[in-house]
Design brief:
With 158 residues, this protein is α/β, with parallel strands linked by helices. The protein is built from 3 helices and 7 strands. The longest helix is centred in the N-terminal third of the chain and has 31 residues, at 8-38. 18% of the residues are buried.
Length: 158
Amino acid sequence: MNKEPMTVRGHELLQQELKKLKGTDRPAIIKAIAEARAHGDLKENAEYHAAKDQQGFIEGRIKELEGKLSNVQVIDVTEISAGGKVIFGSTVKLLQDDTGKEIIYRIVGQDEADIKTGLISYTSPIARALISKSEGDVVEFKAPDGTKSYEIIEVSYL
C-alpha cells in the first residue's frame, strides 16, 4: 500500500486531535453514559441514546485517525533541497495572468487541504501543474470554469 504524503504540521494536527479524542472526549462520554444509565429505564432514556451515538462517532473518528496516521509519510519540506522548484509542502506565490491578482497556495496532503486557507491538495489540477516548476514559469491548467494561467512569483519552503 502506498503511503499518503503529509506535512509535518498536518501530522501534528492529526496527532493532537487523536490525543484529545482519546484523552478527553472518550472518558467524558463514558462518564456521560454511566450517568445516563443510572437514571434507570434505558429504552426511553434520550440522554443515554445520545451519549451512545456520540460514543460511536468518537470511536469511529479514533479508528479513522489511527488508520490515516499509520499510513502517512511525513515530509519535512525544510529538509529537502529543491533548488527553487515547487515540491510537495512548498508555498507558492502566484500572479493570475488575466486579473493581476496575487494568490498564495501551499501544497499539502489530501487530508490537510483547505482552499479557504490556501492549502491545496497535491492531487488538485493546479498543484499538479505547479509541481516541478520554478519562479518565473507560467503555468496553465484546466479549472471547472475554464483554462487558468498563473505566473510563479515566489517559491518558499517554510
